[in-house]
Design a protein that fits this description.
Length: 702
């Protein structure tokens, strides 16, 4: 008969709950217990449904929450009464893990207090940091260094327990006899509140969690988890009356990250469906994003579609992202940051970071060695991992160091972040949309210089954005007057609203307009958050034939136009971007079908983006190579021509005089000014070098 071994009970065998658990296990878990014994040690935990226990005996369930140590010990004693004669005799130790606590029993991290100490609680959070698996002492065998006597002591808590003195020689000189001691797997992690439960400028609360035995390595940083455990006091410095706290975890459940934290009532759902049927819904969304900012309707419409997002497709060998990435590049003072902060306030799940104060690993993920990991390596999740399923606002992207910005490439296209450091090789999910803002390289735009030459971002990164908008500070008297009047009226409306709040008066008129029309969004922010959350959870539109034809016709015609003009006007990235934008447009209407109007809206926004960003200032043609290669197709062709001339003239190994190049390039239609620029670029690429002044020579390649 197999014997179930447990640590010695500290509560005695005559516990009133033991018999109750015996009956409970006999009725509900006899097969599961037998399965654990058969498959031990691969399976060494019995998962017990709390709801089933509560139905069996609600007093016992309540006592489990109030006195978990006593009740869990009783449950383990109850298992000793089970006998399975068909199995071989063996000593085993089964963990009892309770799960499925009702949502009413879940506690927000910020609401955990001293009243929860030594009680069983259920919490939810996002894993912020996690250590490698380390060995933890379970049963210590101490050997007396004087007489050799040994003592076995079961270890509890976070400090090591030793014998007080040797019963034989009365000395206190002991050393750990590791060969006779028992160890178990141990892991430590830190969780923080989900971003979607935070309001305003609230900072997420964190909690340290200790895991042991077979529940280690169940999750990675960035994963959303539901944890059941006992809240304990952590050791503190001697003489200090203030203690830390940690959760001794007994059950880990991974949770799908999205927008479930946003509670949508039946009344909210009715309002949302009414909004979706409104023929002016897109205009209302535009008016709800940064309402205090005048104009920029196309940019606001694009941000609105980004908030709703496209549909992620999971294929057998790959997945296609549904996230929409948008880049705003503008002159100083054109309200880029305000549009980012407005979108951050509306999005159900989002993070706002600044390029100057954020490192690459702060955005993605890293492995670090610190005290949290007991001196070992720990994995830390960055902003994009923590915001997975939502949106990350990255301001001043151009100010981020170039070597740290490289980390964004994989995160934006593959929706993952790979870490390979100190022998730790893993991959995190970053299913995150990015709304980024940047300034031109020299503060303001030059009218006759391509975008890529004016911002300090690599073309490979820019090409990963679905839409790019140039926001210029144009000197125009009529527009300046309109903006000035709008801003001044908004300020006056804000002043009057402050008085209304202070004195409790109703909304007053401001000329012919209500104050609320100037200062308030068209859709209340809280309702808009629920609207976005509802659409992303319930609406997964499919492309109609009309939408497919509209997108296909536009893409093919754009490519054909490029073929005729000798330039690349679009790539597959633009095609997929059109699909994502069309799906987001359908989600706004809560439609499960992407219609022609959705495709046309996406095409209009893409045209606006291409017109601003990838128009060659020399020819006036659309040239996607501006963002793919950092220069136009014409410039690339000219580089190839000049390199071919240099190679032709130096076939015998001679250097080529610059004067010869000038005359040869002129015959190919390349001016001397452009030739100097091309020679500098070829030299930087390592294609040519200058052996002496006014001479060039091709680099010898293996």
């Amino acid at each position: 008969m197999p014997t179930l071994e447990f640590e010695e009970s500290t509560f005695g065998s005559e516990n009133i709950y033991v018999e109750k658990f015996k009956r409970f296990f006999e009725l509900n878990y006899k097969k599961e217990i037998e399965d654990c014994i058969e498959n031990y040690p691969e399976k060494r935990s019995l998962a017990v449904d709390f709801a089933l226990l509560e139905k069996f005996d609600y007093v016992l369930a309540d006592e489990l929450i109030e006195n978990p140590d006593v009740v869990i010990d009783s449950a383990k004693q109850a298992l000793r009464g089970f006998s399975f004669t068909t199995l071989e005799t063996k000593e085993i130790s089964i963990n009892i893990r309770f799960f499925n606590f009702p949502e009413t029993n879940r506690i927000l991290l910020r609401n955990i207090s001293a009243t929860h100490l030594n009680k069983m609680i259920c919490v939810e959070g996002v894993i912020k940091q996690i250590t490698d698996v380390l060995p933890k002492l379970k049963v210590a065998t101490w050997k007396c260094n004087r007489c050799g006597n040994t003592y076995k002591i079961f270890q509890t808590g976070q400090s090591v327990s030793e014998p007080v003195f040797c019963e034989n020689c009365r000395h206190r000189d002991f050393s750990l006899f590791e060969e006779e001691s028992e160890f178990l797997d141990y892991q430590k992690m830190q969780i923080q509140e989900p971003l979607e439960v935070l309001k305003g400028s609230e900072q997420p609360t964190s909690l340290d969690v200790y895991l042991a035995d077979d529940i280690v390595n169940k999750a990675l940083p960035g994963d959303s988890v539901i944890l059941v455990g006992i809240l304990r006091l952590s050791p503190t410095k001697k003489g200090k009356p203030i203690f830390g706290r940690y959760l001794e975890c007994i059950y880990v459940e991974q949770k799908q990250r999205e927008f479930e934290e946003i509670t949508v009532t039946a009344a909210d759902e009715k309002k949302i469906k009414e909004l979706a049927k409104d023929p002016q819904i897109y205009e209302k969304l535009i008016q709800s994003i940064a309402p205090s900012i005048y104009g920029h309707e196309d940019v606001k419409e694009a941000i609105a579609l980004q908030l709703f997002g496209g549909v992620k497709k999971i294929l057998p060998t790959q997945q296609i992202r549904g996230n929409i990435h948008i880049l705003l590049v503008g002159d100083p003072g054109v309200a880029k940051s305000q549009m980012l902060t407005s979108a951050n306030a509306i999005a159900p799940k989002s993070i706002y970071v600044g390029g100057k104060t954020t490192s690459g690993v702060g955005l993605t993920a890293t492995a670090v060695k610190d005290e949290f990991g007991e001196g070992a390596w720990t994995l830390k999740a960055g902003a994009l991992v923590l915001a997975s399923g939502g949106i990350a606002m990255v301001d001043e992207l151009d100010k981020m160091p170039a070597d740290e910005r490289v980390a964004l490439h994989e995160a934006m296209e593959q929706s993952t972040v790979s870490v390979a450091k100190a022998g730790i090789i893993t991959r995190f999910k970053t299913d995150t949309s990015i709304l980024a803002a940047a300034n031109p390289k020299f503060s303001r735009f030059e009218n006759y210089e391509p975008l890529v030459n004016q911002i300090d971002l690599p073309p490979t990164l820019i090409s990963r954005f679905d839409l790019f908008f140039l926001i210029r500070d144009v000197l125009d008297k009529t527009k300046d007057t309109e903006i000035a009047n709008f801003i001044l009226k908004t300020h006056r409306a804000g002043e009057k609203l402050s008085k209304v709040k202070m004195h409790g008066r109703g909304i007053r008129k401001l000329g012919s307009e209500k104050i609320g029309d100037l200062a308030m969004p068209a859709i209340e922010p809280e309702l808009l958050r629920k609207y976005i959350s509802y659409a992303r959870q319930h609406i997964f539109p499919e492309l109609s034939d009309e939408a497919i034809n509209a997108i296909s016709d536009f893409y093919v015609k754009l490519r054909e136009k490029g073929r005729e003009e000798g330039a690349y006007t679009a790539t597959h990235r633009q095609l997929e971007g059109l699909v994502r934008l069309s799906e987001a447009s359908a989600r706004v209407r809560l439609s499960n079908v992407v219609e022609k109007q959705d495709a046309e809206r996406a095409i209009r926004l893409l045209k606006r983006s291409l017109k601003d960003v990838v128009t060659d200032p020399e020819t006036g043609k659309i040239d996607i190579d501006l963002i793919l290669a950092g220069q136009t197709h014409t410039q690339l062709e000219n580089m190839h021509k000049v390199l071919a001339i240099i190679k032709e003239k130096s076939k015998g190994g001679e250097s080529v005089p610059i004067d010869v190049l000038v005359s040869e390039a002129a015959q190919a239609g390349i001016s001397s000014e452009k030739l100097d620029e091309i020679i500098n670029k070829l030299e930087k690429k390592g294609e040519i070098y200058r052996p002496r002044h006014n001479l060039v020579k091709p680099t010898q390649k293996d």
